Amino acid sequence: MSTTTILHNPNCTTSRSALETAEDLGADVEIRRYLKDPLTEAELRDLIAILEDPVEDLVRRDPLFVQLGLDHDDVADAEAVIATLLREPRLLQRPVLIRDGRAIIGRPKDRVRPFLAG
């Protein structure tokens, strides 16, 4: 089985749940704490190229999004998403799972097990 990279925030219950699921399955995972080690522009481009979800879903629309004065234009396309996430990595949706040229956002939680098992 190949290694799955999980873009992880330990303060997020959904992200912690993904790690628990990986452990339950005995999946080989590499954990990247993206707040301590933010993705570069090239890494974001690579991620978007293999993401099975809409690119705008990579950006959390939480109170920070509103506080920063962001709106639809800040997530309208891949270039806008990249610019937004480079400015504010805390807005990256989590967890993101990457393996074998595929990537998904691990929300809802029930998406994680099939991705890790498949």
Describe this structure in words.
It comes from Nostocoides vanveenii. Pfam families: ArsC (PF03960). InterPro entries: Arsenate_reductase-like, Thioredoxin-like_sf. This is Arsenate reductase (Glutaredoxin). Belongs to the ArsC family. By secondary structure, the chain is of the alpha+beta class. It has a single domain, classed as Glutaredoxin, CATH 3.40.30.10. Helices cover 37% and strands 15% of the residues. The chain is built from five helices and four strands. The protein has helices at 13-25, 41-50, 63-67, 78-87, 112-117, and strands at residues 4-8, 29-33, 96-99, 102-105. The protein has a four-stranded mixed β-sheet with strand order 2-1-3-4, sandwiched between helices. Helix 1 (13-25) links the parallel strand 1 and strand 2. Helix 2 crosses helix 4. The radius of gyration is 14 Å and the shape is globular. The mean pLDDT is 96.
State the gist of this model.
By secondary structure, the protein is an alpha+beta fold. It is 37% helix and 15% strand. The protein starts with a strand and ends with a helix.
Provide tags for this entry.
118 residues; alpha+beta; 4 strands; four-stranded mixed β-sheet; Glutaredoxin
CATH superfamily placement: Glutaredoxin
What's the CATH topology name? Glutaredoxin
> Looking across the biggest beta sheet, what order are the strands in?
2-1-3-4
| DSSP summary, beta strand count | 4
User: Can you identify the CATH class?
Assistant: Alpha Beta
Please count the helical segments. 5
| Proportion in helices | 25-40%
- CATH architecture heading: 3-Layer(aba) Sandwich
Shape: globular
Global mean pLDDT: 96
